[in-house]
Specification:
The structure is a homodimer of 394-residue chains.
Chain A: H1 4-11, H2 15-30, E1 36-37, H3 49-61, H4 64-68, H5 77-91, E2 100-103, H6 105-117, E3 123-127, H7 134-139, E4 144-148, H8 159-165, E5 170-176, H9 188-205, E6 210-214, E7 237-242, E8 255-259, H10 266-280, H11 287-294, H12 304-319, E9 332-333, H13 342-350, E10 354-355, E11 357-358, E12 368-371, H14 376-393
Chain lengths: 394, 394
């Protein structure tokens, strides 16, 4: 018999995926250039040339056994050393290779982090608005994801709601800053306050509450924005990183877990990840990709387009009367819709070939997400459609 | 709190790993050339040049977005089409892309296959001798692995023991042919008999018993050996493949699940794998590697060295009086030790710098495994050490 859990999931099709498929289909009718497709968070800038060149160099010079042989299940040792050094240099941390576990992207990192510190029945808290994949990430481990309602004024943390929801079954809290879908970076003040509550509640409940910090957008922070390194503020932090966005190579599936050296159990956690891998069939990201990113750790793709696009959209949206918190990073913006029903709002926008994603699946109704990882030229052309839509419909 | 399951696993160090580390350490004392290290199943022949050339070509010509962008979670569609076509051409099957799910190696494939058809508490049967990683692969899903004792005369299947162990909780049977550690290929006769029993028992228990066929050694079959394609003989077969051995790139983590089109639920299983991935953080193998193997599906590394090494070892072992079933493929041989305690036997062999792995963890005591994926020159030099060991110790 097929396992019913997964059969049941087949009928719940992703809203984002549906809209993205609609945009592509519509593009076949009127030309994709004329569809203002803000649905998908797929990096639009090329991988830095240096990364491709590193791979070509490796393929041309390294021996087959050295390059394509089994890597250790925690990742290639020299790669882990370099990742630790880069984090220490950039964020003033004290990681060693023993705190780094290489993964197939942030999804792989989170899969390990959750299994390190939760068992079925435990609760994991996260904050709306949130990346909807957290639902299967957490719930399919047997733990239960609980979502703290948003602070819609700032998209920082709604601490009142958080304190009412945290309880003795809470084993981990997940944060995502810079945030998908709001584009907001949690401020130093927010993270300090979060850290204080976690410390106090850990003491109260007699067990550490771990902070799982999902950071695929860490390198996409706009001019002058306060976007601190989360792990600096709370010892029991497990950082989950992906190079997908910073190096524009989401298909290559490469990231890591970085365990704060002061975390309870820090000395065991990377090797435990190696054991977790045996159960979930992870067994390392590809050697070639590990070696290639290790040579380019301080590099990012040219991501200036994202800030440029954000400013154009933010100015236009506020001019048109949208309530909108200005993003501090990522390539998302999350304005309030012009009616309570964001699904109806986005349906109407579709008539103008302006395709955004209604916010319901992000745990924060009444808003919509625009993923502006598209060309600036297209963003500019989209404004007229947006204006017409607002003028004619509201 | 750290999750105890994984903490407990840290103390149980792999026998193979320990012996391999011993061999490397000993190599530092006397020169690794003088250590006859038969511990690890790490392919010793280089990746075919064409594979590296394909990657260089892709890196030099494809657009960044096309090459490094997100692939669909089931794998890159054109890759799945090509994998299906290659299997159909070589094994007379009728796969379409809808039956193919790309994975990070065989471990990733098995992780999905198990979750398709078992829930916690279900039983999975496999046959000794067996790859010890099946223990964490199965048991960490919550299902329970049961091992059918070996038929030590042939290392085919001990059907009497199998029929006594199969029961209404058996949801899947795992086979590994060509087999690690025995090197044996299940014959047409064995697979037909297995298929008949599974069909009969499925009917008796009122649910399909799936056959999970783990086939990383499928392309390493020696001259004249009967090594049929398992899925041809039983409709409810999920084949799990890895390119690690056939293309000598175990570090690149690439393989697939191939679902027999007549399998119960065949139309749903690949998309269900996509859902399973969300829970275990899989999300596809690396795009570059997917595209590279798709261009080289009918190619293998030059694996003639394995058969040459096998013949040399088999002749010498039988000359020395070892009971030994002649391998039909892989790069393993699995002779009976010269005393009942294989661990003691292998300890004694270490004094001659002849390092094999005792069979206890393979579920078949009293034997030892030699992984002869090393140079023929070294195999030949090892014979004198083997002879001295046997002469002086037994």
């Amino acid at each position: 018999m097929l396992v019913q859990t997964y059969v049941d999931m087949l009928s719940a099709k992703s809203v984002i995926r549906n809209l993205s498929e609609y945009a592509v289909a519509r593009g076949k009718e009127i030309g994709y250039d004329n569809v203002f497709d803000y649905t998908l968070g797929n990096p639009s800038v090329p991988v830095p040339d240096a990364v491709n060149q590193t791979m070509i160099e490796l393929l041309s010079t390294k021996s087959s056994m050295e390059l394509h042989g089994y890597s250790q299940s925690l990742g290639i040792p020299e790669v882990r050393v370099k990742v630790a050094a880069s984090l220490n240099r950039r964020f003033g941390m004290n990681y060693t290779m023993d705190h780094i576990f290489m993964t197939s992207g942030a999804a792989g990192a989170i899969a390990h982090a959750l299994r390190l510190v939760t068992v079925p029945g435990d609760e994991v808290l996260t904050f709306a608005p949130f990346f909807p994949e957290y639902n299967p990430y957490v719930n399919l481990t047997g733990a239960v994801l609980k979502v703290v309602p948003a602070d819609v004024k700032s998209f920082q943390i709604n601490f009142e709601a958080f304190e009412s929801m945290i309880n003795e079954k809470t084993m981990a809290v997940m944060v995502n800053t810079p945030n998908n879908p709001s584009g907001i970076c949690y401020s130093t003040n927010t993270i300090e306050k979060l850290s204080n509550i976690l410390t106090e509640k850990s003491k109260q409940y007699g067990h550490v509450i771990y902070l799982i910090s999902d950071e695929p957008y860490r390198e996409i922070v706009f001019e002058g924005v306060d976007a601190p390194y989360v792990s600096k503020f709370y010892d029991h932090t497990i950082s989950c990183y992906s190079f997908s966005k910073s190096l524009s190579l989401p298909g290559e599936r490469i990231g890591y877990v970085a365990i704060n050296p002061k975390c309870e159990g820090a000395d065991k956690m990377a090797v435990m990840c190696g054991q977790i891998s045996r159960g979930i069939g992870h067994n390392c990201p590809a050697s070639l990709i590990q070696l290639a990113v290790a040579e380019n750790l301080d590099l990012t793709a040219d991501m200036s387009v994202y800030e440029r696009n954000m400013n154009i959209l933010y100015d236009e949206l506020t001019d048109l009367g949208f309530e909108c918190v200005k993003p501090g990073g990522t390539f998302y913006i999350f304005p309030k819709a012009l009616e309570d029903d964001a699904i109806a709002f986005c349906e109407k926008a579709k008539r103008y070939d302006f395709i955004g994603v209604p916010s319901d699946s992000f745990g924060c109704p009444g808003h919509f997400r625009l993923a502006y990882c598209i060309s600036t030229e297209k963003v500019e052309r989209s404004l007229e459609a947006l204006r017409r839509f607002v003028r004619e419909m509201y």
